[in-house]
Amino acid sequence: MGKIDELSAIAARLKQEHKSTLRHDESKTVAEILSAALLDTSVDWSGLLAVLEGIPPSPIATAVGETWSELPEDRRRLFLRWVSKRGGERETRRSVQVAAVLLEHDVSAAVDVLTTVLPDSKMPKETKVVIRAAFLAKKATPVTELARPEIPVHSALRITSALRQSVDAESPLTARYSLARLCLACIARMDARHVTEATMLWAATEHDIRSWPSQMQAQFRDENRELASAVFRVPDIPEFFSVRVTVSSRPASQPSPQAPVKEGDLLTKIDERIRTARDEITMLEALREVLVAAPRITKLEKELADSQAIAAGLQQQLGHETARADAANSRVAAAEATAAASANQVNELRAKLAQLADKNKALVAQLTATGEVEVQQFKNGLGQMLARLIIDLPDRSSELSPEAARVLLRQYHLFIDKLVDTGVPVRATSTAR
User: How far is CA 368 from CA 170, 282, 349, 354, 375, in A?
Assistant: First the structure.
């Protein structure tokens, strides 16, 4: 049984049993079969992808991770086109799990898949669960790879926002720590056009960070202070990193000693508080602009969705018209080819007729010349024959005796017989006298 047949049998069994998952050992076996099929150059690639529609996402992602570095470039492109198809929950889970695996092998490919399958608007709960399981589970996924400079800013922002929406309090702290670093790195790459998105992304990130243990907050500030120093478009970020969190070993029941506050220190703190208040006002004004613009954004998103639907319909109609035009062009080309062939045949017939006409003229000329020669020869022969018969012919005025008249009559009949012998019909009847 071939590899595609084995996978097809497994897919048929799952469909018959109404199952969408495999046991761990079954998933491992399917992944091994699929890995061998992906690397087998004799396997029909389109048939393999059709069979994979019925295989659960987990073994597909495992097999792709094991074979991606060995796959030819053309098969990579075909697989990415197939796995990036939008569809239902099953297709989304498959795409997200494959992208999570590709993040360790081919960051650009992972980004292409995610930007294609992630929804343009607010993500549904099911999609958040899938993303959380693929990227923010116990097994560490290198999400910080998405902060690479070669990744377009809009793609990094879209994927990072999706990850931020998917995280919850149950997600491991290590995954949340990596996601916070990714958010900060993504914000650092944004320009003035993305101030609103950066502010909202950092607000969600800071809210999550403040729920961490104090030691982890201090570690995050220390490790990312230099990166945060370059971010000046979001006022809350420098303020957050200017605070140093210290973890005290003193029991909670023992109050910390209060140092006397000097007048100069008090003025400095008041100035800092004024600056902080101004920054907060700036942030609140930005958030207010976002909230004011939200209905308009929703309307624009709806108009965009309608426009995309219309564009999709026009694109489909264009495809039909293009197909019809191609068919018409094919018919026109066939007709032109037929007309050209007919024209060639007509030209060939005209050439043959011209040759026949030339031959006919030559033959007529030859026949005419031959006929004239033969007539002249006939005349000459006839003249010679008559000349022999009229040697003894008397004059017109001669008196003929009966005997001479009989001789002359015989010569006359002899003359007629000679004419008949030469093919000249001179007798009116066939009766000789």
Answer: 117, 118, 28, 21, 10
Output the six-digit token pair for 370.
Answer: 């031959």
Position 251 scores a pLDDT of 40
Alpha carbon of 396 to those of 237, 254, 393, 400, 413: distances in Å? Answer: 156, 185, 9, 10, 18
SS3 helix, strand, coil % of the chain, rounded to 5?
Answer: 75, 0, 25
The residues, ordered by sequence, that sit 6+ positions from 294 with a Cβ below 8 Å of its Cβ are none
Which backbone phi and psi does 141 adopt, to 5 degrees?
-110, 130
> What is the length of the chain?
433
What pLDDT sits at residue 253?
37
CA distances from 8 to 13, 15, 48, 78 (A): 9, 11, 9, 20
One-letter amino acid identity for 254? Q
Residue 139: predicted pLDDT: 65
| Spatial distance between the Cα atoms of 325 and 311, rounded to a whole number of angstroms | 20
The model carries a pTM of 0.54
pLDDT of residue 67: 92
For residue 212 the two structure tokens come to: 């961490």
What residues contact 133, with CB distance under 8 A and at least 6 apart? none
The C-alpha atoms of residue 67 and residue 202 are separated, in whole angstroms, by 37
Q: What residues contact 78, with CB distance under 8 A and at least 6 apart?
A: 45, 49
Tell me what pLDDT residue 264 has.
Answer: 53
d(C-alpha 35, C-alpha 37), whole Å: 5
Cα–Cα distance, 321 to 317 (Å, whole number): 6
What distance in Å separates the CA atoms of residue 253 and residue 250, rounded to the nearest whole number? 8
Tell which residue, 243, 232, 169, 245, has the closest CA to residue 202. 232
Residues 6+ apart with CB under 8 A from 126: 89, 92
For each successive 10 residues of the chain (433 residues), what is the average pLDDT? 82 86 88 90 88 91 92 90 86 90 90 85 83 80 82 87 87 89 86 79 88 90 80 67 47 39 58 69 72 73 78 81 82 84 87 88 87 82 74 73 80 79 66 46
